[in-house]
Design brief:
The chain is mostly helical and 112 residues long. It has a domain of 78 residues. The chain contains 3 helices and 3 strands, in the order ββαααβ. A 3-stranded antiparallel beta sheet has the order 1-2-3. A hairpin with a 6-residue loop joins β1 and β2. α1 crosses α2. The two termini are 22 Å apart. It binds zinc ion. The site of zinc ion has 8 residues, from loops.
Protein backbone atom coordinates (compact mmCIF):
# COMPACT_ATOMS: atom_id res chain seq x y z
CA UNK A 1 0.00 0.00 0.00
CA UNK A 2 1.21 3.46 -0.78
CA UNK A 3 0.61 5.76 2.17
CA UNK A 4 1.31 8.81 0.07
CA UNK A 5 0.44 7.87 -3.50
CA UNK A 6 2.84 9.87 -5.61
CA UNK A 7 4.58 7.08 -7.47
CA UNK A 8 5.04 7.65 -11.17
CA UNK A 9 3.85 5.16 -13.76
CA UNK A 10 6.95 3.44 -15.21
CA UNK A 11 5.48 3.73 -18.71
CA UNK A 12 4.19 7.30 -18.94
CA UNK A 13 5.29 9.04 -15.71
CA UNK A 14 1.78 9.99 -14.55
CA UNK A 15 1.24 9.89 -10.77
CA UNK A 16 -0.63 6.70 -9.97
CA UNK A 17 -3.56 6.95 -7.51
CA UNK A 18 -3.79 4.61 -4.57
CA UNK A 19 -5.66 1.36 -5.10
CA UNK A 20 -8.65 -0.08 -3.38
CA UNK A 21 -7.86 -2.96 -1.03
CA UNK A 22 -7.34 -6.14 -2.99
CA UNK A 23 -7.12 -4.50 -6.40
CA UNK A 24 -4.19 -3.63 -8.60
CA UNK A 25 -2.73 -0.21 -9.13
CA UNK A 26 -3.83 1.14 -12.48
CA UNK A 27 -2.44 4.14 -14.30
CA UNK A 28 -5.26 6.58 -15.15
CA UNK A 29 -3.33 7.90 -18.14
CA UNK A 30 -2.23 4.76 -20.01
CA UNK A 31 -4.29 2.07 -18.24
CA UNK A 32 -1.27 -0.05 -17.34
CA UNK A 33 -1.78 -2.43 -14.41
CA UNK A 34 0.97 -2.02 -11.84
CA UNK A 35 2.28 -3.66 -8.71
CA UNK A 36 4.76 -2.61 -6.02
CA UNK A 37 8.24 -3.83 -6.94
CA UNK A 38 8.44 -7.43 -5.82
CA UNK A 39 12.18 -7.36 -5.20
CA UNK A 40 11.67 -4.49 -2.74
CA UNK A 41 8.94 -6.44 -0.89
CA UNK A 42 11.24 -9.45 -0.56
CA UNK A 43 14.13 -7.37 0.82
CA UNK A 44 11.82 -5.61 3.29
CA UNK A 45 10.42 -8.99 4.38
CA UNK A 46 13.89 -10.41 5.00
CA UNK A 47 14.92 -7.35 7.04
CA UNK A 48 11.69 -7.43 9.07
CA UNK A 49 12.06 -11.16 9.74
CA UNK A 50 15.62 -10.60 10.94
CA UNK A 51 14.53 -7.73 13.20
CA UNK A 52 11.67 -9.87 14.57
CA UNK A 53 14.02 -12.74 15.44
CA UNK A 54 16.46 -10.37 17.15
CA UNK A 55 13.65 -8.62 19.07
CA UNK A 56 12.14 -11.93 20.23
CA UNK A 57 15.58 -13.14 21.25
CA UNK A 58 16.29 -9.95 23.19
CA UNK A 59 12.91 -10.29 24.93
CA UNK A 60 14.09 -13.61 26.30
CA UNK A 61 12.24 -16.08 24.06
CA UNK A 62 14.24 -19.19 23.28
CA UNK A 63 13.66 -22.57 21.68
CA UNK A 64 10.18 -23.26 20.31
CA UNK A 65 8.76 -20.12 21.96
CA UNK A 66 10.97 -18.06 19.67
CA UNK A 67 8.93 -19.03 16.58
CA UNK A 68 5.43 -17.74 17.54
CA UNK A 69 6.94 -14.64 19.15
CA UNK A 70 8.97 -13.95 16.00
CA UNK A 71 5.79 -14.25 13.92
CA UNK A 72 3.88 -11.91 16.26
CA UNK A 73 6.64 -9.30 16.21
CA UNK A 74 6.94 -9.67 12.42
CA UNK A 75 3.23 -8.82 11.99
CA UNK A 76 3.62 -5.79 14.25
CA UNK A 77 6.74 -4.65 12.36
CA UNK A 78 4.96 -5.13 9.03
CA UNK A 79 2.56 -2.32 9.91
CA UNK A 80 4.79 -0.30 12.23
CA UNK A 81 7.60 0.03 9.67
CA UNK A 82 5.30 0.97 6.76
CA UNK A 83 5.71 4.74 7.29
CA UNK A 84 9.46 4.25 7.84
CA UNK A 85 9.86 2.38 4.54
CA UNK A 86 7.75 4.98 2.72
CA UNK A 87 9.89 7.78 4.15
CA UNK A 88 13.35 6.34 3.58
CA UNK A 89 12.86 3.79 0.78
CA UNK A 90 9.67 4.72 -1.10
CA UNK A 91 7.86 2.00 -3.00
CA UNK A 92 8.24 2.04 -6.75
CA UNK A 93 5.86 0.43 -9.19
CA UNK A 94 6.50 -2.10 -11.94
CA UNK A 95 4.14 -3.48 -14.57
CA UNK A 96 1.86 -6.14 -13.11
CA UNK A 97 3.03 -9.68 -13.80
CA UNK A 98 6.71 -8.75 -14.16
CA UNK A 99 9.60 -9.13 -11.77
CA UNK A 100 9.49 -12.26 -9.62
CA UNK A 101 5.70 -12.44 -9.98
CA UNK A 102 6.02 -13.16 -13.70
CA UNK A 103 3.18 -15.25 -15.01
CA UNK A 104 4.06 -18.74 -16.16
CA UNK A 105 2.35 -18.21 -19.49
CA UNK A 106 4.24 -14.99 -20.05
CA UNK A 107 5.40 -14.41 -23.57
CA UNK A 108 7.70 -11.61 -24.74
CA UNK A 109 4.76 -9.77 -26.32
CA UNK A 110 2.68 -9.81 -23.12
CA UNK A 111 5.12 -7.78 -21.00
CA UNK A 112 3.52 -4.42 -21.74
ZN1 LIG B 1 0.92 5.22 -17.28
Amino acid sequence: MLLTPRMPCPACGTTVPNRTIGGHYRCKQCGLELQPAHSQSVIEGVIETFLAVVAAWLLGFRGWKLIPMTFLIFVVLLFALLPVWERFWPTWLEPYGTGMRRRRTDSPGAKK
